[in-house]
Each structure stands twice: as C-alpha cells, then as structure tokens.
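# nightly structure sweep
# worker-07 picked up a monomer target from the shared queue
# config: single-sequence mode, recycle default, output format = structure tokens
# input follows
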Amino acid sequence: MKVMILTGSNRKEATSTKMAEHAAHFINQQGEQVTLFNLHKRPLPFYSPDESYAEHEHLSALHQEMLTANAIILITPEYHGSMSGVMKNALDHLGQTHFNGKVVLSASSAGGAVGVSSLLQLQAVVRNLHGINTPDWISIGGMQRKRFEIEYDGYEGGQEIEDRIRLVLESFLNLARKINSPAGAAL
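# output follows
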C-alpha cells in the first residue's frame, strides 16, 4: 500500500513537518511505502482556475503522487484558527480524482493547546473531495510540540503523545488496508 503524506508549512524546521517525518518513519516500519511531500521544499504556484500549470514540476509531481496513493495524511500547522495557506493552496490544486474513496488522516500542530479548527477544516475539504476521513486525528500543541523540536531532550508527557500518535497511525493503516483489500474495494 502506498501512503502519501502532504505537509503544509512554510517554516524550515516546523513541528508539523517533523511530525510528518515521524509518521513516515513509523509507516515504513509497518512495511508500507511512504511518500512525503513537503510544501516548504516543493512550493506550488498560487491556485487560479484561469491558469494552466501543466509544466510546473512540483505540481505535476504532487498530482502524480496523490493519484497513485492508496491513503493520505494531511499535516498542517494551525495559523489563526485555520490550516496553513500553503496547505489550502495545495488542496485547491487537487480534486476528487486524488481523494475519492481514499482513507485520509488529518493532523495538526498548534502553538496553543490543540489545533482543532484546522482539523475540522481539513476534514470538511476531504468530505467535499469524497475522501474517507478517519474517525481519529492527531493534534499536538503546547508542550507536546517540544517532541518535534530540534532541541528535544525529553519532557514529562513525551511518551504519552508518542503513544497517541502510534495508536492513531495504526488505526489509520488498519482502515486503509481494509478499504484497499479486494473485499474493501467491492464496497
């Protein structure tokens, strides 16, 4: 199974990107193929329905990788109660053909306590693109973000967030495997 992780931050060392790398490592350990598309390293043009982007290298790669993915993880920082602008821009470039019938996990990293607003918005977009939202999501904030910062040296509660992320990723993979099995494809 191929899992696509789309991470939407403009920060070089964003905690949301570090969480995406952590998720990719875990999924690889589970024997699944993972592609991580980092919108900081591979920026996209601003979306406009009046423009053709057929020749844009990063956008072409994003389209192809999303089309071939069996399951998707969207990871964004939460800015001002919303997903990042680069994540929304990337989603505007995509359509139902990229999400239809695919299991999608939403995750967020917020400067405050948790990033619930961005997660609700991601799930609304996924529904509109006919993806299958997982019942769980990952939201880290406050001290939990320290786990994904460069100078991480352990902190009280660090294992708790690692356990939560592992459980949610396992649940996501189990659902994606069921949907992508021959019996699930018949649904």
